[in-house]
Design goal:
about 90 residues, mainly alpha, Arc Repressor Mutant, subunit A, two-stranded antiparallel sheet, about 70% helix, globular
Length: about 90
């Protein structure tokens, strides 16, 4: 069976990587801190490696996190292009 990433989780991951803070990510995604943390943990479980080094107040991408960041941007961009193309929405 094919494996795939949850687009919502990838979006949350990108926001966390950009803001470097779970609490800000939670505000921007309209989710609780624990929901954001759970989504990231599910991605980490899926790939079998940590995505962030968690310090007291900040997140730093691991090597795997940096790689996923690049792929996630491409995946979400392709998804947006496909959606706009098929629905005629801009």
């Amino acid at each position: 069976m094919d494996q795939y990433f949850n687009l919502e989780y990838l979006n949350t991951f990108l926001i966390a990587a950009d803001t470097r803070k779970l609490n800000v990510t939670a505000e921007l995604t309209y989710r609780s801190h624990s929901a954001v943390s759970t989504q990231i943990k599910k991605l980490e479980t899926q790939i079998g490696a940590p995505l962030f080094i968690r310090n007291k107040d900040t997140l730093t991408l691991t090597r795997g996190g940096e790689l996923l960041y690049t792929y996630a941007k491409d995946i979400l961009n392709a998804n947006n292009i496909a959606f706009r193309s098929l629905t005629g929405k801009t």
